[in-house]
Amino acid sequence: MTLNQVQFAVLGQLFHTPVKGDFEYLPQALVCIDNLGNILSVTTDDDSGFDANIQQLEQAGKLTRLTDSQYLMPGMVDLHVHAPQWPQAGKGLDLPLYDWLQDYTFPLEAKFADNSFAQPMYRSAVETLLANGTTSAVYFATIHNEASVTLAKTCLELGQRGFVGKINMDDASQCPDYYLEDTVQGLADTEQFIQDVLALPGNEQRLVSPVVTPRFVPSCTPQMLKGLGELTTKYKCHVQTHCSESDWARDYSLEHYGKSDVAIYQEMGLLTRKTILAHSIFLSDDDCEAIKATGASIAHCPLSNMYFANAAMKTREILDKDLHVGLGTDISGAPVPSVFHTCLDAVNHSRVREDGTNTHLPAPERGEAGSRISFLESYWMATVGGGLAIDTKVGLFAPEYAFDALIIDTQAPDSDLFVIPELDTPRDRLEKIIALNRRTNVRKVYVQGKQVINKDA
Ligand SMILES: O=c1[nH]c(=O)c2nc[nH]c2[nH]1
Fold first, then answer.
1. Is the minimum distance from the CB of 261 to ligand 1 under 6 angstroms?
2. For the residues of 288-352, what is the DSSP string, one character each?
3. What is the 292 CA–ligand 1 centroid distance (Å)?
4. For ligand 1, is residue 80 a contact (CB within 6 Å)?
5. What would the pLDDT profile of 233-275 be if each residue is shown by its tens digit?
6. How is the chain split into domains, by residue range?
7. pLDDT in tens, 159-180
8. How much is the pTM?
9. Superfamily holding 76-389
10. Where in the numbering of this chain does the Amidohydrolase-related domain appear (predicted)?
11. Of 47, 309, 366, 394, which one has the fewest beta carbons inside 10 Å?
12. Is the CB of 189 under 6 A from ligand 1?
């Protein structure tokens, strides 16, 4: 490695989770980033030339030194977020899924026909996620091309790695007439959207990717699903959709197709290595085998599951089967725009499942023994698992990975984090950060080596 190859370097303590369920803490690591924003090297004082490299980088003005309360951590990956629903985050969550969609969500999303309405909403959504440490986000937009391209442009402009889908909804029996597209036109619009995002000026490094996005089985006709499968094959695009997310949604597929969502998506050419299935609560063994065989991924959205799923997620089993799985905030099926919070939700969700809730039953019969997941597993899902799902080298500090990273400061102003060095082991500190990190603690955010947030400027 020569000095010229290094764009900049960060020296300090870092956490990441290369192995699911475990963590690595380096008390003094030097991470060098190349001119394209990828990691060149991660070294420690065990490596020869460590001190000399630091000196050289410092003299060249290329070194950022972290303080004792700062930690370098991978950027968070949000695998499932509805950007147009950001204005209603926190509203209407007392309703079941079908009513929530019809009463709140479809009327709001329909307003994105007006691009001037969309622009400030999308800006606020992307800014908020970035400020909370989300470096990659997989977005549902709406059925409207112009506004969906606006979301992609907003990600590019603000420097977030974005996976953006123009939604498809063409089944008139399930979608209101004011928020419905024609099948043939919807497919043509989707192809145009894919081409427009790929051709966006400034997107040469593909920071933003188009995603084929059938909303879910009830909102699409079989012709639409089939046409979207063909576009997926043609453009080798990512795919995102909702999968077996509630009793009602599961039963709809069984009644109309005689099969599960996973089987329907597979038959339509929509289940690939680059498919992200949000929720996936009611999976059969066959569904899990199909997901594993294709390398598709699951976006676990624990807080939204508590409102809409009618059951607990089988996260323990999904992790044990080694399916690709990451986390999603699912704004606004859940209201909190932080994947750190989603980590805590995932742990809590699994603990309620393990213990059960019916106090009339004896403890051993109340819950599902052995179904808890750990903080470290939830954090792995939010970083490494998310990176696997988007099929992008992010979520880890290792050569050739993109430098998508956060500087977390446990002594940020107005912080809830209270780290006591003489009491807290590295594992304690990481668990505290996962549980208690707030927006204020995320001081700097880097995406593809570019600093996109600096709260200490
Ligand atoms: O949580 C959800 N949010 C949505 O917008 C949606 N649409 C279909 N199914 C959905 N679930």
1. no
2. HHHHHHHT-EEEE-HHHHHHHTSS---HHHHHHTT-EEEE---TTTS----HHHHHHHHHHHHHH
3. 24
4. no
5. 999 999 999 999 999 999 999 999 999 999 999 999 999 999 9
6. 3-74+396-454, 76-389
7. 999 999 999 999 999 999 999 9
8. 0.98
9. Metal-dependent hydrolases (3.20.20.140)
10. 71-452
11. 47
12. no
